[in-house]
Amino acid sequence: MPFSRSFLSEEQLLCSICLDVFDNPVSTPCGHSFCMSCIRHYWDTAKQCQCPLCKQTFKRKPDLHINRTLREITEQFKSMMANPEESWTVGASGEAEKGGRTQETVDGAQKPGPLPGYLLDEMKQRLSRHNAHGNDERGSEQTPNIDTNGTVIARQLSLRRYTLSGAADAMKVPLCPKHHRNLELFCLSDLECICTECGQTDHQSHNITCAEKEWQSYKIKISTTETEIQELTRERMQKVQEIKQALVDVKKLAQNEVQRSMQLFGALMSSLERSQAGLLEVTEINRRSAEHQAELMIRDLEQEITELRRRSTALTKLAQTENFVTGLKGYSDVSTPMSMKDWTGVSLTCDLGTKAIYASVCQLLDQFKEELQKLPAVCLSVSAKQSPEKSHPKVKRIQEYAVDVTLDSNTAHPRLILSEDKKKVWCGEKHQHVPNNRERFDRVVCVLGREGFSGGRHYWEVEVDRKTDWDLGVASHSCNRKGKITVSPSNGYWFLSLRDKDNYAFRTEPSTALPLSLKPQKIGVFVDYEKGQVSFYNVDKKMHIYTFMDNFSETIYPFFSPCTNKTGKNNAPLVITPVLLD
Questions:
Q1: SS3 of 280, please?
Q2: Cα 493 to chain center, whole Å?
Q3: How many CB atoms within 10 Å of residue 516?
Q4: What angle do CA 205, 209, 213 make, to 5 degrees?
Q5: Is 61 exposed, middle or buried (0-12, 13-18, 19+ CB in 10 A)?
Q6: How far is CA 145 from the centre of its chain?
Q7: Per-residue pLDDT, 405
Q8: Which of 43, 66, 188, 296 falls 20 to 30 Å from 91 in CA-CA distance?
Q9: Other CB atoms within 10 Å distance of the CB of residue 316
Q10: What is the mean pLDDT of residues 375-394?
Q11: Is the bond leading into 510 cis (omega within 30 degrees of zero)?
């Protein structure tokens, strides 16, 4: 049975992705067929698993199997295209064999031959299945007729064609306004649709292709471009959220900066005002003292001047007398030595005693300058998210240097009570029976941390809420732990103190008082061993409180003192809490 080439056309066997004849064709659940490699590559590069033609989306990638019937047809078609003079016939066994000639009509034109039996059955099943699903929508359309001899009678369908990859709607092609023929071609040079006559006349030297094939390639480009646009849109929406969050962080940081600057400059202005008041007072006292001294000196000088003038007048009168008896007697009275003070080295001092005050102000300004230089490096920063390009490295927050600090019971004062997890400490009423080792404090109610630091950066937080007195900071390994202790950086102690609920101070020489408007409930302690820096923070308000700068030459340990309980008024514990990153 001959199988004529006129039954099939190349358009019916083209993959809509590569626009070439099927190679190992497979069918999707929606009924469309593609080359196996084409559809797999399309799904591997696409964001969603969907059909390239109808855009039906599949929840999971379908299992693909080669459509053997369609593959045999495409292979036979490729062979016929390679050998146009030969046709296919069906032998006695029912298999397609090569070698026969196609039947010819009287006028010499080729006549379609009968279809192989197994291909005829396959076509019947496909046609009946598509007609069954499409009768309601396509009741007015016609389907190809199949005669009893198995010959397919080609028939022109109304606005519809049938291909081996499924049914496809035919579109009404616009007509060329010049030649009134279908615009079936596309000029790649002028980027416009043209008809065949336009291609032979106005566009003869241009690069021309099939408009429908070009549109299929454009559809793939449209899908890719749409995916890229969605990705760009998503990136920009994410950037908007990042900028909004960064703005929130900037506002929060600005609020903290205002509070910190008001606190720092307020402390400076208070100190300057106190220094100014002291300067005015000392100046006034020294002025009054100099005025009183001058008055005394002037009075003594005026008395001596009066006496000298009196004698000068007496000597003038004595020189005019002619009576030698009176003259000799009067001269003896006038020439008697006077009790005069030597005024040669006497002067009024102009020292007002302000030099020491000015020196104190200069020292205060130097300290203020150091504080300003430290602030950018030690402040709790609220960092905004960086852009995807990450043009600047991320600055680490001090909370990221958090360490697990526990209390060392071997150093605790006998009155101190430690929790089982060594995270809490409070002062009891009585001394406990503990070994009196050399590491233990025996007079000051304090305890050290078990973990020592000899390098790097470290941070921990301590809850001080409901306490009226406490001390927090660090102490050196060689610090004195027996008897009376002088707490200062020179003696190996760097810590912040609270007394009587409101009196905050830094244990320096002498102690530095600090007025805090916001009472901290949790204190953060940050140590940078290499820089010699010990900083304290109000954790809840994210505010810097104070920073010690020194040089560490030995291991340092966290220092804790809950102070005495004051008959129950200060019995709340100091609690080492976990550090929560913002």
A1: helix
A2: 37
A3: 16
A4: 170
A5: exposed
A6: 70
A7: 94
A8: 66
A9: 9
A10: 40
A11: yes
C-alpha span between 384 and 43 (Å, rounded) = 38
At residue 305, does pLDDT exceed 50?
A: yes
Is residue 526 within 8 A of residue 533, CB to CB? The reply is yes
Predicted TM-score (pTM) of the model is 0.37
Confidence of residue 322 (pLDDT cuts 50, 70, 90): confident
| 97 contacts 55 by C-beta, under 8 angstroms | no
What Cα–Cα distance (Å) separates residue 455 from each residue in 315, 411, 527, 554, 557? 92, 22, 9, 9, 12
Name every residue whose Cβ is closer than 8 Å to that of residue 193 and which is 6 or more positions away in sequence. 174, 183, 185, 186, 187, 211
- Tokens standing for residue 188: 């790649």
Interacting residues of 334 by C-beta distance below 8 A, sequence separation 6+: 311, 314, 315, 318
Instruction: Determine the Cα–Cα distance for residues 293 and 157; give it in Å rounded to an integer.
Output: 132
Pairing of strands 192-194, 185-187: antiparallel
Q: How far does CA 322 lie from the centroid of its chain?
A: 115
Q: What is the DSSP letter of 421?
A: T
Number of helices (H), then strands (E), belonging to the chain: the values are 7, 24
Mean pLDDT for 225-251 is 89
Q: Which range is least confidently modeled, 278-287, 292-301, 469-478?
A: 278-287
Integer Cα distance of 465 and 562 in angstroms: 11
Rounded Cα distance between 473 and 466, Å, is 19
| C-alpha dist (Å) from residue 301 to 290, 298, 310, 336, 409 | 16, 5, 14, 19, 78
Residue 35's Cβ-count burial label (10 Å; 0-12, 13-18, 19+) is buried
Other Cβ atoms less than 10 A from the Cβ of 482: the count is 12
pLDDT of the residue at 509: 72
Q: Side chain identity at 486, as an amino acid letter?
A: T
> 275 near 358, Cβ under 8 Å?
no
Strand-pairing partners, residue 210, are 185
- Hey, what long-range contacts does 284-288 have (CB within 8 A, 24 or more apart)? 285/353, 286/351, 286/352, 286/353, 287/352
pLDDT of 436 above 80:
yes
Burial per residue of 136-157, b for 16 or more beta-carbon CB atoms within 10 angstroms, e otherwise: eebeeeebeeeeeebbbeeeee
Contact 576, 462 (CB under 8 A): yes
Rounded Cα–Cα distance for residues 188 and 456 (Å): 68
Q: Is 34 left (phi over 0), alpha (psi -120 to 50) or beta?
A: beta
Greatest pairwise CA separation for the chain in angstroms: 195
Question: Is the distance from CB of 539 to CB of 523 less than 8 angstroms?
Answer: yes
**4 or 281, which is more confident?**
281
Task: Tell me what pLDDT residue 250 has.
Answer: 85
Q: Quick: pLDDT tens for 493-546.
A: 998 999 988 888 887 777 778 877 778 999 999 999 998 899 999 888 888 888
